[in-house]
Design brief:
The chain has 143 residues and is mostly beta strands. The chain contains three helices and ten strands. The two termini are 29 Å apart.
């Protein structure tokens, strides 16, 4: 399953594949580092929680700034490398679970022309928002 990414000005817009019963609560940017980092060879460079809109809760959000989230629990203080990971955080305050992660290469992303509802995956595939969500196998309501 792949996240979608697109540039909007200088912002990186993420489209996270999500089921109707899920909600994005936050996101973080993680980079690979030499040495132990946070104990696993990675370092969290930015983290934010508290979606500002329904679009954010539904999985479309900007990373690296407070534009999409109410609280930056770890503001971005270092320049990002050209490639990094975005982790989605699902749930609600006090009931957070780590969602999936997706990788992005900013140089490659900047060089791609995308339509209004198109995103680029880390595998180089162009997908619409609906196609990104269709990657998920979501539970169906019965009853």
């Amino acid at each position: 399953m792949h996240f979608g990414f697109r540039m909007e000005g200088n912002d990186i817009l993420v489209a996270y594949p999500i089921c109707p019963s899920e909600a994005v609560f936050g996101a973080q940017i993680v980079v690979s580092v030499d040495g132990p980092g946070r104990g696993d060879g990675f370092e969290t460079r930015w983290r934010a929680t508290g979606p500002r809109s329904d679009a954010v809760r539904r999985g479309v959000f900007v990373v690296g700034s407070g534009r999409s989230f109410e609280t930056e629990t770890k503001p971005l203080t270092k320049r990002l490398p050209k490639a990094f990971y975005v982790d989605a955080i699902l749930g609600t305050r006090g009931h957070e679970v780590k969602g999936d992660e997706g990788s992005v290469d900013v140089d490659k992303l900047k060089s791609v022309k995308l339509g209004a509802d198109e995103y680029r995956t880390s595998r180089g595939k162009t997908m619409t928002r609906a196609q990104i969500n269709a990657q998920r196998t979501c539970p169906t309501k019965t009853g």
